[in-house]
Specification:
The complex is a heterodimer of chains A (about 1050) and B (about 240). With about 1050 residues, chain A is an alpha/beta fold. Helices cover about 30% and strands about 20% of the residues of chain A. Chain A contains 33 helices and 40 strands. In chain A, the strands form twelve sheets. Chain A has a seven-stranded mixed beta sheet, sandwiched between helices. Chain A starts with 10 loop residues before the first helix and ends in a 16-residue tail after the last strand. Helix content of chain B is about 45%, strand content about 0%. The chains are: A alpha/beta (about 1050), B mainly alpha (about 240). Strand 2 of chain A pairs antiparallel with strand 1 of chain B, so a sheet runs across the interface.
Chain lengths: ~1050, ~240
């Protein structure tokens, strides 16, 4: 829609009023169906092949063309260049040249371990997958862990020690640290501070403890820009001692999430997504009907958790507490004098239905129960109230257990009471990282700090804006920084030490439940980098002991008692077993006993609430100035792709279309459709956001389902340093984030500027003109019509079916089924595919032209009103049609059918006509318009999967069903003279999926789960009416709404 | 006005227009010939190596099994080029003062790999697996030729796709018992030497080599090894 057509500038309203039934839309533009949208839809690529990267004139183009023509004719006359083979001098143990090796390791993600299995080709790690034995990986991964291998080979990584910005030698750094030690010896460590992120590594904590013992006056602070400790402090209020809740969504029959995006950005998204999906898989229940959980979500920003909800409510963050108070009143939880009333935005029948459901499962059978979770962006007293209600509902012991907090614990295990040892004294403020940083800031401002060591943290970027951290840190006379990138903090430090990647150094890490994994390096450090262990060891004067020896001696001393005496006596075999398993058994923290609501809860809650309210009132900014724009609430969230900015230099993550918004390469101010209508704002329009004296200019993006008066801003963008990819894209949300609105605040003003800023959004790329694309229904519909549920839209084959002959597949018959009920749209599969198949990054300019190369995209479909739509995800790889329209139009037979049913792409034959892509009804083919693959940067060559061709310019490519894995399995099976077994071929997307939504296998093998899924009554073929016989098929998206709440009617907007 | 062109130009222009067809055809023909010629494919062209390693001496004279050096040939896609330590297993004691072997000793001393020149170089878009070929009864000699007669290594075959396909379409004539995949002799030579029967005892216990011709042996092997014609593109290209 265009600004000029004022009368139809909001046609969504008129369209919505006559919406009935299950009609889906993918974007607000599609819903509006304006002329501009239709015009953009017509060509296959939004902007066609006549577009070149900017800066290329017609003259340059012609000269390039003639040069390339001349070169092309000459290139045929050159013989193949000579290649060298460099064998080993001594072959490493276990290695079979050409075969990958797999090692269990773990990635510290925000301080906590995610167990991984890394694939190594001739000594170079190329890929990670989840470790089945690790409870916080379960064999799956998330986008961050998948993309971590790219960070290892990132050419922008910090590679040299810097002293005042100049490259320095290791010996100089060592002598500088030596001099520092002498100073510390002299003054007992007074004025020496360490700042790090969350550290759970037992060995590093023990080293820090030794440092503290040597220099008792030193202090250690820890800070994550996305601190996840509010729940621990909430438990302290509720139960009288700090405890860390561990949730089991698999046992939860009814879940209420308040702003907690537990499926993607919560405490442990992988296991939570797995548990949630397993309890939701009624869709596969052809033979064994199972109960399906019910999810209520009240959230301020549209998240994937809200998208999976059965009942979702856009709610301002400030109203969450009121909703909880109202719940507490209804459920007779004593929360002090406060009598809760249901917030005005919450429909009363919604509230009543929720209460009914919660009561139904209160003290339910021991199998399942109710569960309330609150996002870490809410203050501790809200968490306390949620835990109190959980206790009242009988959730303790079933859906939630409590352990001693993992953060800040150095003891390898807890005593029988689950109590923490005295090691917490090491941390200034163990359970409030913001307080910990505040204490450091205060000390720095008062000149109490003379030496600061920053360990893998970037406080100059991420500290609250009102603290003026730059000024505070500049007052410290001597500053050192250890980090993977020469980032904003490195620029302000005298010394910058390049940090090793987790795949380069020995370490250990605890998972959220305390379970330890040994981090096993896959490769020697690529550059002369240091791990935190080495830096602290240097400070301790123990630099001669390698991190490996430190780790081993630490574990030799305090190995957990496993009971098996004969193993326990032999440390080496025990160690080997830990490395092989990827976990150290017996190190998980036991559930804390006797957890019950403290009798002083009501008082504590009231006082915490009052002090929070007082702080909020004290810091209320002057917002009376109407000229500065419309008054709004603002909410800060970690970015789903680059989190707090630490992954900003990772091209895979930058180009990953963010869930729901589908934005790449930028963040934007996310606003609700109703607000956009009110202010007459369009996507990509630049606005100024003012908060007190702070101002940020950035584009808006309209998000269906956003809370009406809340604008959401993702952290981590708009950086000034930290690599070529990181510095540039987006807008720095930290500039607006202050302590009084650390997560949300209600006093920003938004004003139009009239300017625009292009955002690269992939939501409207590769559209399949409005047909019945996605199927979504409810459990009760399925129960009423178990054979043919009405939402399945039985398609009728045309009278003139395909001209292509039917083919018998009597050998293997590969096929994939994707369960859209389970799919949470988290993008793990997309990055896994990118990593497995050497898919290049194209950059924002090319994404704007619709040239992103992802072989797998996640289509998001919305249904009903834009203000609070229902959402369905449909991941879309190649369909591998049996009667593939692409094959018949290729003039050079570069895309052909195999007798196992694969639709194969032969890159070396492709001449780039793009007819195939034109004829593909699913729009799953991607064309290399330019030379996207980087052939030149040496370090990136180490990243590539050697089993997959690195495609060149002018070649069409697409999902191959990971044919290299099929080939490997086929060869292995043939060598053993058997057939490929069920479950033997696992595609990259399937292995990464935390929700187990993707099944792949041989359709001729009845033992494959994929054959069972294809029998389901809610199984459907996308665009089945075209008779293409796709091999990739889907299970419909099922929800389980409360029968008391009639399915949401489209909301008719009054404006 | 006088004619610019003499009337004979009519004939010449006709001839040259029709002749052009032949010239273009000839160009294509020449290209077709050249890319198949040893000049292009480097078939039969011996390569210089940092150490003039002789397969003739090691395989033919000394009788060392292929797998002693090419350790992963039966396990992996890549046959494996021997590590320096494998050379030094013998050459620490044999010819350990020969100047010709100095690069080997240097490599072992400095822990730096020897930079061999690749002789068999497939396109990066083609994926070949040694182990499955051996397992299916295709011997080394089928592709690499009589390496026991090669003083320096050269390509014995063109490695053109049409050559690969000629066997993938009809593998049977190239089959041999698994027992003899590392043997350089042809099936005929094996039959003459009388070793053949010993080699098929495992795989074809019922089969009597002396009574049957080689073609029926190959057909029987094809049955036993479950040989299929593999011509899907993704068998090699992915």
């Amino acid at each position: 829609m265009t600004a000029s057509s004022a009368e139809n500038s909001h046609p969504t309203n008129t369209r919505l009023t006559d919406q009935r039934g299950h009609q889906f839309w993918r974007s607000l533009n599609e819903l509006a169906d304006g002329d501009a949208y239709r015009a953009r839809l017509a060509p296959e690529f939004p902007d066609h092949a006549d577009r070149w990267p900017s800066g290329l004139s017609r003259r340059k183009f012609l000269s390039l063309m003639s040069a390339s023509l001349a070169l092309a004719s000459w290139s045929g006359c050159a013989k193949k260049p000579e290649e060298e083979i460099l064998p080993y001098v001594e072959m490493p143990e276990q290695l079979v040249p050409g075969q990958p090796l797999y090692f269990a390791t773990a990635m510290p993600l925000f301080g906590y371990g995610v167990g991984l299995v890394a694939e190594s080709h001739m000594g170079r790690p190329t890929r990670v997958e989840g470790n089945r034995h690790h409870p916080f990986s379960l064999g799956a991964t998330d986008p961050f862990t998948q993309a971590s291998v790219l960070t290892l080979y990132d050419p922008d990584r910090s590679q040299a020690i810097l002293n005042n910005g100049q490259i320095s030698a290791k010996a100089e750094l060592q002598s500088a640290i030596g001099a520092l030690r002498q100073r510390l010896d002299a003054n007992n460590g007074r004025g020496f501070r360490i700042l790090s992120g969350t550290i759970t590594s037992p060995t590093l904590l023990a080293q820090l403890k030794r440092l503290k013992d040597a220099y008792p006056a030193m202090q250690w602070h820890h800070y994550e820009p996305v601190p996840q400790d509010a729940d621990i402090r909430g438990c302290e209020l509720a139960f009288g001692r700090p405890l860390q809740p561990l949730y089991d969504f698999g046992k939860a029959a009814v879940i209420l999430s308040l702003d907690d995006d537990f499926l993607l950005a919560g405490h442990a998204p992988i296991p939570h997504a797995r548990q949630f999906a397993q309890h939701r898989r009624a869709s596969v229940a052809t033979s064994r009907p199972r109960e399906m959980n019910r999810l209520y979500v009240a959230e301020s920003t549209a998240t994937v958790t809200g998208a999976k909800a059965d009942h979702r409510l856009p709610l301002a963050p400030q109203s969450m507490e009121q909703l909880l108070l109202a719940l507490a009143s209804r459920l007779d939880v004593n929360s002090g004098d406060e009598v809760g009333t249901v917030p005005a935005e919450v429909p009363i029948e919604w509230f009543e239905a929720l209460v009914d459901d919660l009561i139904r499962y209160r003290f339910g059978d021991c199998e399942s129960s109710a569960l309330i979770v609150v996002g870490y962006n809410h203050p501790p007293h809200v968490h306390a109230l949620a835990q109190a209600i959980n206790a009242k509902l009988g959730a303790i012991g079933t859906t939630v257990t409590y352990i001693q907090p993992v953060v800040g614990t150095t003891a390898s295990s807890t005593d029988s009471q689950g109590n923490a040892s005295d090691d917490e004294a090491l941390l200034v403020s163990p359970f409030s990282q913001l307080d910990s940083l505040r204490q450091l800031k205060e000390a720095m401002k008062q000149g109490e700090v003379d030496t600061l060591l920053v360990l893998s943290s970037n406080p100059v970027l991420t500290a609250p804006a009102d603290w003026d951290f730059t000024d505070a840190i500049s007052r410290v006379p001597y500053r050192m920084h250890l980090g993977m990138y020469a980032d904003e903090t490195a620029e302000l430090c005298h010394w910058h030490i390049p940090e090793s990647h987790y795949l380069e150094c020995w370490s250990d890490v605890r998972a959220r439940n305390g379970l330890v994994s040994i981090i096993q390096p896959l490769i020697a450090p690529l550059y002369d980098t240091w791990s935190p262990h080495q830096v602290v060891a240097e400070l301790l004067g123990q630099a001669s002991v390698s991190p490996y020896e430190q780790l081993r001696s630490a574990w030799r001393e305090r190995r957990p008692d496993e009971g098996a005496a004969e193993i326990a006596n032999d440390f080496d075999s025990q160690w080997a077993r830990w490395l092989k398993l990827g976990v150290v058994p017996g190190t998980a923290f036991p559930a804390a006993p006797n957890v019950g609501l403290s009798s002083e809860f009501a008082e504590r809650f009231t006082s915490a609430r009052n002090s929070a309210l007082a702080t909020a009132n004290n810091t209320q900014l002057d917002d009376s100035d109407e000229s500065r724009g419309t008054l709004l609430q603002i909410s800060f969230r970690p970015d789903p792709s680059i989190w707090d900015g630490r992954f900003a230099n990772n091209g895979w993550l930058q180009e990953l279309p963010k869930p729901l918004t589908k934005l790449t390469w930028d963040n934007a101010l996310l606003i609700a459709p109703s607000l956009a209508r009110e202010l007459d704002l369009e996507n990509e329009e630049l606005v100024t956001v003012t908060r007190g004296a702070r101002q940020l200019r950035l584009p808006v993006w309209i998000v269906p389902g956003q809370s009406p008066r809340v604008a959401t801003l993702h952290l981590g963008y708009g950086r000034k340093a930290g690599g070529r990819v990181a510095s540039g894209p987006g807008f720095n949300a930290y500039e607006l984030r202050t302590t009084d609105a650390f997560w949300f605040g209600n006093d920003v003003r938004l004003a139009k500027t009239g300017e625009r800023f292009p955002l690269a959004c992939t939501q409207e790329h590769h559209l399949m003109h409005g047909r019945e694309l996605v199927r979504a229904g409810t459990l009760s519909e399925l129960q009423q019509h178990p054979d043919h549920p009405p939402f399945m839209h039985e398609h009728h084959l045309p009278d003139n079916p395909s001209l292509l002959p039917n083919w018998e597949y009597d050998g293997y018959k590969w096929g994939m089924v994707i369960d859209t009920t389970a799919c949470i749209g988290c993008n793990a599969c997309v990055v896994a595919c990118q990593s497995e198949n050497n898919i290049p990054v194209v950059g924002k300019e090319q994404v704007l032209m619709g040239r992103e190369m992802h072989w797998l995209r996640i289509d998001t479909y919305y249904h009903s009103a834009a203000d609070n739509p229902e959402t369905a995800f449909q991941p879309l790889p190649c369909m591998h049609c049996e009667k593939a329209p692409c094959e018949v139009v290729c003039p050079v037979a570069a895309t052909v059918h195999s007798d196992e049913g694969l639709n194969e792409m032969v890159y070396n034959r492709c001449v780039g006509t793009r007819y195939c892509s034109n004829n593909c009804p699913y729009k799953v083919r991607r064309f290399n318009f330019l030379q996207y693959a980087d052939y030149d940067t040496p370090v990136l060559k180490l990243l590539r999967n050697p089993d997959v061709t690195v495609r060149s310019r002018g070649v069409m490519e697409k999902c191959t069903y990971c044919v290299q894995r099929i080939s490997d399995a086929r060869i292995a099976a043939k060598k053993e003279e058997r057939l490929i077994r069920a479950g033997e071929v696992i595609t990259a997307c399937q292995s990464a999926c935390p929700a187990e939504a993707i099944q792949f296998g041989n359709l001729n093998n009845p033992r494959e789960p994929v054959t069972e899924w294809r029998e389901s009554p809610i199984h459907y073929k996308l665009l089945g009416e075209l008779d293409t016989e796709p091999r990739t098929t889907f299970l419909a998206s099922l929800t389980n709404p409360n029968p008391d709440l009639v399915p949401r009617e489209p909301i008719h907007d009054e404006s | 006005m006088a004619n610019i062109f003499h009337p004979s130009m009519n004939a010449i222009s006709r001839v040259s227009i029709f002749g052009m067809v032949f010239v273009i055809a000839a160009i294509f023909f020449i290209i077709w010939i050249v890319v198949r010629s040893p000049y292009w494919t480097e078939e039969g062209v011996a390569r210089e190596q940092p150490v003039p390693f002789s397969h003739q001496h090691h395989v033919g004279d000394a009788g060392i099994d292929c797998r002693y050096c090419h350790t992963s040939v039966d396990k992996s896609s890549f046959a494996g080029i021997p590590s320096t330590s494998i050379c030094m297993n013998c050459h620490a004691y044999l010819w350990n003062d020969q100047p010709m072997l100095q690069p080997i000793r240097d490599s072992y001393r400095d822990q730096k790999p020897i930079r061999w020149t690749r002789v068999h170089d497939l396109g990066d878009y083609a994926f070949f697996n040694h182990s499955i070929h051996l397992h299916k009864g295709i011997g080394c000699v089928s592709c690499h030729g009589r390496v026991d007669e090669m003083p320096l290594m050269w390509k014995n075959q063109s490695l053109l796709m049409e050559w690969c396909l000629s066997c993938h379409r009809d593998p049977v004539p190239h089959l041999r018992p698994r027992e003899f995949v590392y043997d350089m002799r042809s099936l005929e030579e094996l039959a003459e030497s009388g070793d053949l029967q010993r080699g098929i005892e495992n795989d074809l216990p019922e089969f009597d080599a002396a009574e049957s011709d080689l073609q029926s042996l190959r057909l029987a092997l094809s049955q036993r090894y479950d040989i299929q014609s593999e011509t899907n593109c993704s068998i090699c290209h992915r």
